[in-house]
Amino acid sequence: xxxxxxxLPILWVLVALHGVTSHEDHPLARIxxxxxxxxxxxxxxxxxxxxxxxxxxxxxxxxTLEYGTGNPSNDDWxxxxxxxxxxxxxxxPENNMVTPPLLxxxxxxxQFANRSNLNYKRTGKGSLKLQLINQRSDFSFALFSGGxxxxxxxxxxxxxxxxxxxxxxxPRLAQGKTWNEMTVTWTSGYDINEAEPxxxxxxxxxxxxxxxxxxxxxxxxxxxxxxxRTVGWRDPGFIHTGFLKELWPNLxxxxxxxxxLFNGTYIWSQMYKFKASPYPGQSSLQRVVIFGDxxxxxxxxxxxxxxxxxxSLNTTKQxxxxxxxxxxxxxxxxIVYANGYLxxxxxxxxxxxxxxxxxxxxxxxxxxxxxxxxxxxxxxxxDSGGECGVLAQTxxxxxxxxxxxxxxSTDYGMFRFCIADTEHDWREGTEQYKFLEHCFAxxxxxxxxxxxxxxxxxxxxxxxxxxxxxxxxxxxxxxxSLQKLWQKYKVDIAIYGHVHNYERTCPIxxxxxxxTEKNSYKGTLNGTIHVVAGGGGAGLVKFTSLQTKWSIFxxxxxxxxxxxxxxxxxxxxxxxxxSDSKVYDSFNISRDYRDILACTVDSCPSMxxxx
Length: 611
Hints:
Largest sheet: 8 strands, antiparallel
Number of strands: 33
Strand content: 25-35%
């Protein structure tokens, strides 16, 4: 009877999922949960081992599932659930459940029972190896028959848990509001009424100091709609951010995350290190990686993201392997593709932790983070799954004046980056337009010659098929609103995501190439080079068959871009594929300060003839 009580709530989770099948692009929508029934079978079983994880300090480990049934089928599948016990005393009324118990948590992921067992249909026995990460709660595993369209719950496993589910995890570095400030954000299970969060840090090999951290969290009322408020809801834990100030340029620092319990006990993370940012204008080797639309992928091949972000792990892997040659990373929107399933944010921060714990990881807002009807977003679609920007704004730090207005600037040595929020109005006369003009106008180009514009949606140029079908070859109103700013302030490169491929234009202004050279630019560009770098991992987008004069290079594949500033006069731009990290497109810019000052069309004010 006890087993049945535990199984029944899981069934109600699946039934509750029926209300979110409109989110077609999320893999969990493949499950016809409205057809789910309880079919507990005494002959069916599923066992998980080991039952305790993380005793060696690891925060991700592999477990083994052994399962069997008396009536096997190739449609049988295994779902991963956390928390392990799905009995919920209350549930958001948006769930529209009519029979208790009311449940608010979806499966985290799933795999078919025959994935690694070719004889499963004949023997009725199988096994799987799954990777789990520490997500502040225990886990259970459920065996279903009937396939994804008519699921029947037949067995549930024992529980599995990490030794310290509350441990401080997944540090995310980001630049602060001044050049000599680094922030570190992490997740834990400790509220401030249980423990005091802090960062212990200092120069590598030198004296260490402690800086207190602020703590935030999210509840259902913070979110805008289903599934985020209903079946996609999962307690996100507590998000802490510490501010490491007055750093020396380019100096290596070490840090570790700490929580002091009120009984005097300390809980520590492992030790990490990072290199402080250079002074704005400082001449040193500076290397930047940029991509959009990466999302997450399961290392164990679980179907929840199988063929959904197939390039994500490759992009992550290549960046990790080259991290010693990377100083800062920009992920320009469509970060996780959680689409209202909050458990995916933990899984993403675990995936990128080897990057985010070592170099600043700066994000931009995309449609899958922000868009929701009547929430203030520029687009009235439901792409965020009810998150309406709250998860992105809380899980990651970025130096904006208002976290809901996701535009900001940040300096890295010889670079000035102006990051737009395409999910809020950018048109002339708006608050964001004024910010962008100030960001462009306020940079000292003698000290910071490389002026870069970043945004999620393509406000410039793209040959992606859906933009071409609209006849706009970019976001409608994008170029019309911003190209005079790019030209006036001589923005060198504009980089976008949203379209899941790679494309580079000539230096261009008002649809006309301003240079005929394609790979080695010398002197004044006379326009802005526009790049789509949306192939971070999500499913690829085809190009239109229409040919445009401004498109120099296209690639229907996964990849990312890297910019290297050697000094104030020489910049190298490279596009690398995620499959092998080899360079498939590149150009360089060589020029002097006088070339930046030189007048081009619509870039200089009228001159007086007075002597």
